[in-house]
Amino acid sequence: MTVRPTAHPRLILSALASCGVLVSVMQTIVVPLLPELPGLTHSKPADVSWLVTVALLTGAVFTPLLGRAGDMYGKRKVLLIALVSMVLGSLLCATSSLLPVLVVGRAFQGAAVAVVPLGISILRDELPAERVIPSIAIMSSTLGVGAAFGIPAATLVVEYANWHTMFWICAGLGLLDIAVVLLIVPESKLRTRGRFDVPGALGLSGFLVCLLLAVSKGSAWGWGSAATIGTFAGAALIVPLWVFFELRTTSPLVDLRVSARPAVLFTNLAALLIGFAFYANSLSTAQLVQEPVSTGYGLGASIVVSGLCLLPGGIAMVLLSPVSARISAARGPRFTLAVASALMAVGYVVRLFTSENLFAIVAGATVVSAGTAVAYSALPALIMHAVPVTETAAANGLNTLMRTIGQAVCSAIVATVLTAVVATNAGHTAPKLSAYLIVFVIAGAAALVAVGLTLLIPARRQAAVPTPVKA
Description:
The protein is mostly helical. It is 76% helix and 2% strand. It is built from 19 helices and two strands. It has helices spanning 9-28, 37-41, 45-48, 50-73, 75-95, 99-111, 115-126, 129-160, 165-184, 198-221, 226-246, 256-259, 262-290, 303-308, 311-331, 333-352, 358-386, 392-420, 433-456; strands at 422-425, 428-431. A two-stranded antiparallel ribbon has the order 1-2. Strand 1 and strand 2 (428-431) form a beta hairpin. Helix 5 (75-95) packs antiparallel against helix 9 (165-184), helix 10 (198-221) packs parallel to helix 18 and helix 13 (262-290) packs antiparallel against helix 17. The protein starts with 8 loop residues before the first helix and ends in a 15-residue tail after the last helix.
């Protein structure tokens, strides 16, 4: 493949990685603000939680859809649409304190997560073959890096500035990223032929909305409530109809025959569990260190300290992404993913025995983040070895979707455990230490199962990433 004279590989990677980090920050930026938002928006806490739920839903729905659209109509074009969506969402959140407006803004922000799989596909199309694996490792890791830095950054803004400020900053950075992409990133000429699968898109969207609504709101609605059971039932009814249609259409949104290959299937299942284990680390750490001293284990740390506890993990993710690429080049991405998943499990073992000491908590959380960085960097390499070059964006979009579903399931389980295993002391109800330990056991077990799934991925000889022939 010949790279255009104006397309400098490092500049392209830098431009796309900055976009990936920014849209990933969007996923966690409101988390530190949730306790304050009911008062700021004059809303109920249950209603405020939609600011997290709606971003999760739109991210899950639009990631595979925009990935497929990128394969068909142009990856840079669709990536720019996703960035514009993020900027519009940020402006809505920056200019209003009305909850309905904020929810719409968060929906626009969530849809922009598709930037990451689209960026991975652009890198595969535009970079020399020897630079593809290291570059996609960095691009993929931006999902974790942005999420890891999002909470510390948001806590600082919430503590020392007006809460709208963080959305103004994101809007400004989004406009800068759009300009950089227009100036630096070329449009790939590689296209997938056929029509966009509208019925398949509607079916997948319906399934994801039902599934993720039930998972993310089940704790608030009640797991035995009609709303929760109904949405789970809706998801279960849609699946066989959607699969039946996708297997018979000539240009499916998701090629289920390719997705059923062991190399793709086990990689995606591992991605789901890794997403679960990563998110448990982020959710539990910030809350654990803020628990009051009266609980007997809490440290009573401020919101700023709780956010900064995640900062070393974010730094570790930045530093280890290139290392992951070197390991994959030497031993293969399958080996890299297995080691990374095992490292995450080790991190949770550390957390089981160090949950009452701030420095030990940070150390354990950093180990988990380090494993996440290596795992996230290896996943797209496994996917790209297993799918046709014309389906790269869609396949990576599906892999990103699996991580998102893992995070949604994790959020529901963590919320359920931390609200069920509680104790009341001096009129204050808080989770018991055992609740956090249960979360760590579950997350560690998820990481170990991911190791097993990785070992089921068929081994293959290392080969260069296929070089696409441009039309």
